[in-house]
Structures are given as C-alpha cells and as structure tokens.
Amino acid sequence: MLRMFRLRFFGDFRNWVPFLLVAGFFATAVLAPIFSPPFDPAVPALNQVVGTDETPKPPGKDYGLGTFPGGYDVFHSLIWGTRSALVFGLTVALSTSILGVLIGAAANMIGGIFARIGMRVTDAFLAFPSLAGILLFIQVLKPVTAGSIELPLNEFQQLMVDWHVEPVVLGLILFSWMPYSRLTFASIEQQKNQAYVEAARVVGLSNWQVFYRHILPNISTPIVVLVTRDIGGMVVLEAALVFIGISGITEWGVMIAASRNWIVGPSLGFTYWWTFVPVTLVLILFSVSWQLLGQRINEALNPRSFSYLK
C-alpha cells in the first residue's frame, strides 16, 4: 500500500510542486537560526528589533525586507514565524481530526441512541456559527477585570494557564471537529456492510478492532485531505483573529495586526507596502500549498485515478 502510494504520488511531476512548497516551509522552520540568526542565540525570538523608529523603514541594505511598526525586522519575523505557523496549524488540525474521528466512530460503532445523540450534537455545532462560538469561548476564558484590578481566575481558567493552553487553540478545536465527525460516521456506514468487514467479524474481532484494523485504513483518504486543508486554513483564520485583536499566537498574524494602520488607505496608497505584502503573500502560499498537497494526496490514494501513468 505504502509502496503503491509512493509510486503514484512521486510518479506525477505535478505532485512535486505542493510537496516541495510544504517541505520548504518545514526546512525554513528548522533552519531559521541559519537563515536569520538572532542577536542572542541563547534567547531566540520571533521578533527582532533592528531600529527605534516607530515609522516602518523600507527594504534596503540595512533592513532586508524593511521593518514594521516598532522597528521589528520583517524578514526575521517571516522566517521565525514559520515555526509558530506550523506548530499552530499542525496542533489544531491534528487535534480537531482526532476529536472528530473519535466522536463519529463512537457514534456509528455503538449505534442506537448514542448515535442519534452524537449526530444531533454534531448538527447543533454545525448550525452554530463557528466564528461566533470561537469568539464567545475566548471571551469567556479571558481573565475578568474590575477597573484596573484583575479578578482571581476560576478553576477552568487556572487549569488552562497551568497547562499552557491558549483559549484560541481550544476554541478552534471545539468548533471545528464536526466535518470530521460527519465524514467518519458516513464513511463507516458505507464500509461496515462490505464483505471484508463481515469476514473480520466472523473470525471474532470486536467492533473496535474491526474499525481500527480494517475500516479506518479504508476511510483515511478524505480525512487526510481535510487535515491538510485545515493546517493552512487554521493559520489564516488565526491571522484574521489576530488582526481584529482576538488572538496573538502566530507571528504572521501579529505582523499584519501591527501594520494595520499602515495598510492601503486614502492617504497611504502603497507607500508602506512592505508592511503587509510579504506576510500576505507568505500566508497565501502557505495555505495554497497545503490545499494542493491534500488534493494531490487524495488523487494518489484514489484507486480509480491513474494520472501518474499519463
């Protein structure tokens, strides 16, 4: 199976484009200290101040890709921001997929009233606007202040602080698992009456053994595609949340938020283009590369596709 996938995937030159793009992002994250060495190697930082002027400086000999407000180096933040983007995207997408697959699988394999309740809960989450739920969840978990005094954290807030869990990460996971659950439930329903599943039950395998050993490998293709799509999509969504002042995890989002007052306007035009064009292009490339990789993996895993032979 794995050998056939390698043959089908790497045998088509079109698959190399997204693969090399994604590999390039991983290489950039790993080699960030080489591409843009920090001033203090013992304390590497995502941001590196190279000037004291609040006004962004244009690209040049001293600033590479220029600076964004606060005197921060654009090139350094782009390179080191790759690490935070990959960690964030992989963490949210993988956690979301695991939660959704477990819920969908449990609902189908247990069946009965548990299946009905599980799918109705899934439908309720699907009907609720995800972005509104994420914003509400983040606001609920924010520390409460009375004037200038910060009130004590409740047990759940303290638990998240102790575990170093960001509210936006948990919010995205809790309001993004539903497509995985629905997809898993429907895929299992389609597969569980197949002959190979009946044969596995005849030899005495339990429902969960049948699911893990036989059904899951046969429904993994659409799940993998969803995961690769969400890795890029979650990073772009978090950047949007940073821009409106909700989050602040990925460095690329922080760069856009810090430069919001220097973006295109009636009096600015494209005067300070370097504050938003490079990071916007990187975000687009990051998202598109993961989307394309998912599509090409889907085609390589599809037994009815033989494009690699053309």
Report on the structure:
It is a single chain. Helices cover 65% and strands 3% of the residues. The chain has 310 residues and is an all-alpha fold. The chain has two domains: 2-128 and 175-309, MetI-like fold (Orthogonal Bundle), CATH 1.10.3720; 129-166, no CATH class. The strands form two sheets. Strands 1-2 form a two-stranded antiparallel ribbon. The chain has a two-stranded antiparallel ribbon with strand order 3-4. The longest helix is centred in the N-terminal third of the chain and has 37 residues, at 74-110. The two termini are 21 Å apart.
Q: Find the structural class using helix and strand composition.
A: mainly alpha
Fill in the CATH topology of the largest domain.
MetI-like fold
Mean pLDDT: 83
Q: How many strands, what sense, and barrel or not for the largest sheet?
A: 2 strands, antiparallel
CATH level 1 name of the largest domain: Mainly Alpha
Say what oligomer this is: single chain
Unreliable parts: 306-310
Strand order of the largest sheet: 1-2
Write down how many β-strands occur, each being a DSSP E stretch of 2 or more residues. Answer: 4
Helix content: 55-70%
What is the correct CATH architecture of the largest domain?
A: Orthogonal Bundle
Tell the overall outline: globular
Structural domains: how many: 2
Report how far the terminal alpha carbons are from each other: 21 Å
Strand content: under 5%
Helical stretch tally: 13
**What is the H/E string?**
HHHEEHHHEEHHHHHHH
CA radius of gyration: 23 Å
